[in-house]
Amino acid sequence: MKIILPKDITTELEAHLPDEVVVVRADSEGNLDGDTTDAEVYFSWFNLKPKTLHRVLEAAPQLRWHHAPNAGVNHIITPQYLERNLILTNGAGVHAIPIAEFAIAYMLSHAKQLPQLYKQQLEHNWQRGLAIEELLDKTLLIIGAGGIGQEIASRAKAFGMRILGSRRHPQPLPNFDKVVGADEWKELLGEADYVVIATPLTWDTKGMIDTEVLCLMRPSAYLINIARGAIVDEFALVEALQNGEIAGAALDTVFTEPLPPESLLWSLPNVVITPHCSGNSPRTKERSLALFIDNFTRYRHGQPLHNVVDQTAGY
After folding, report:
1. For residue 280, which of 61, 141, 252, 253 sits 20 to 30 Å off, Cα-Cα?
2. Residue tagged active-site, from 276, 298, 300, 306
3. Is 262 a catalytic residue?
4. Is the pLDDT reported for residue 183 higher than 90?
5. Predicted model pTM
């Protein structure tokens, strides 16, 4: 069997592959160091560019299975990709723990007024009396109660929060006080102190956090986006933040990345911007390789694969 692996991690993977497996390496531009006309499997790496993806697809007409390390695959499912009818698996779960920790950090930062306290330290200003709050008994709404959403919920529950969630197929979940369907979360916005966006980017979710949604949130509510920037209507968000329609936002992802220097989001005092780094961890690579090796073993033995993407739904 012949497989295509990312050049940067081939050495680490080869030690876990059977001797009969033939490996072709691909670099970040899609350059290949061997013949891939009979390759069956392609493991791409992070920051995969459409041009690179399409180049590999063209060079591997017999490809059957593609594994991507990302949880979000909106950048992969192009019309050209869909024509190939490949099995696509993703890295769902690989980033869940560090992202969940970041979500808690954003909430604590807001509740404890950490940005203002950091500012006071820089100014050598010993000022007391800030409106510092607890997370205890606050209501958290997680839009997208999948793997990441559930990791967030387990940590938030330890702080004594009331947790609401939404998912495509609602069902009772550990740590959630209530889970509703994908179209019902808007009815819960008026109850939420914190709203975390953890849903995949699809045609249905693109731009769904719009003026209507922001108006339904409490003026004291705090929005956190650790999913994809295009889920939020940025113009509507800036307006809501400027007008005090919501208390603030923490954005690990934005519509255009890197965030343009002229974006108003940089300078709004009630916004925290991080450079799409909430999933970063020394253990992310370790988990990514372990997931692929497990799935590759399953593939060779004809067993069901983990994390098969519904390409129609987009996740």
Report:
1. 141
2. 276
3. no
4. no
5. 0.94
